[in-house]
Amino acid sequence: MAPLNKNNSAVKRIMQEARELANDPSPEYSAAPLEDDIFEWHCTLRGPAESEFEGGLYHFRILLPAEYPFRPPSLMMLTPNGRFETDTKICISFTSYHEELWQPAWGVRTAIIGLQGFFPLKGKAAVGIGSIEYPISERKRLAALSRTWTCPHCRETNLALLPDPAGTEQAPAVEATPVSGPSNPPAEAVAPAPNPIASPAVIDRVAGPTRAQTASKRQRPPILLDTAICFLVVLVCGIVFRRMF
């Protein structure tokens, strides 16, 4: 068997990484090679939390050289974001701009996670070519728009390519339009009222005396009537006692 050349090694490595990403997906990104060119990947990346990019979804290309993994990839952002120029190779330490820093043990996942970490860093101090510095308000606006941005090649929105995790809401907050009248919380946010008959004490206080309690009160003579009966008993006993003696 003839020894594998670097190109064959690259194909094996790329397919291995593609299987690993498919078998171990992340809620932070989704990436896969193109069907017609495994040396080009498309990735959708979630914006870093607690930053102006939070809630945003960003689509970019990962271009792998024929000598991969012995040479680093190139990254090109496609979704407008206010941090990196679109359709421009980004200059970061693990890209083709800095081959001397690349390690063959790294891979596509390394590049994706690294790019996410560069989002909140400030301007050209962190990134050279391909860096832009938009106002925070504009970055937040682009983050909201990025969710419905559609890749011309993938033909799907970023949200379809990387859905929000179940039970979470990653979309940037949108200020609600004020309405007239009293402010009421949404129905789903209102806690259910406690059942007024759940507690015996509440039953006694709210529902009043039960039938047994009412009947008991009716059968029990008043205090004055008890006193009068006792007086009459004593008087009759006194009269009888005198007649006997």
TrEMBL record:
It comes from the Eukaryota. Keywords: Membrane, Transmembrane, Transmembrane helix, Ubl conjugation pathway. This is Ubiquitin-conjugating enzyme/RWD-like protein. InterPro entries: Ub_conjugating_enzyme, UBC, UBQ-conjugating_enzyme/RWD. Pfam families: UQ_con. Residues 9-155 form the UBC core domain. Residues 170-191 are annotated as: Disordered. The chain crosses the membrane at residues 223-241.
